[in-house]
Write a structure and sequence with these properties.
The protein is mainly beta and 82 residues long. It has one domain (3-76): SH3 Domains (SH3 type barrels, Roll). The chain is built from one helix and five strands; from the N terminus they run αβββββ. The protein has one helix spanning 3-10; strands at residues 16-19, 35-42, 51-56, 65-70, 74-76. A five-stranded antiparallel beta sheet has the order 4-3-2-1-5, with no helix packed on it. A hairpin with an 8-residue loop joins strand 2 and strand 3.
Length: 82
């Protein structure tokens, strides 16, 4: 079974996600550990498990922003039981 493909089916619009700290990128990790909400899917990433637009929450050092991530760069956060 391909676990990366299974994970990409779990990511949906509106999901709360965290950017993984370890990413396989030539330039190094982008926004590691930041938390955000998936806002849309980019049609060009469908062959690679999904390319998603994520609205990253603002932190003390960085403003809120929307950027794209592949599903392999994201972790789904469980909803808190309130």
């Amino acid at each position: 079974m391909n676990t990366s493909l299974e994970q990409s089916t779990v990511i949906t619009i509106g999901a709360r996600v965290r950017v993984k700290r370890e990413q396989i990128l030539l330039c190094g990790p982008r926004y590691p550990g930041r938390i955000g909400i998936v806002t849309a899917e980019n049609q060009f990433g469908r062959d690679n498990g999904g390319l998603w637009y994520v609205r990253l929450e603002a932190t003390q050092r960085a403003r809120e922003r929307v950027t794209t991530f592949y599903s392999s760069e994201l972790e789904i956060l469980e909803e808190d039981a309130s």
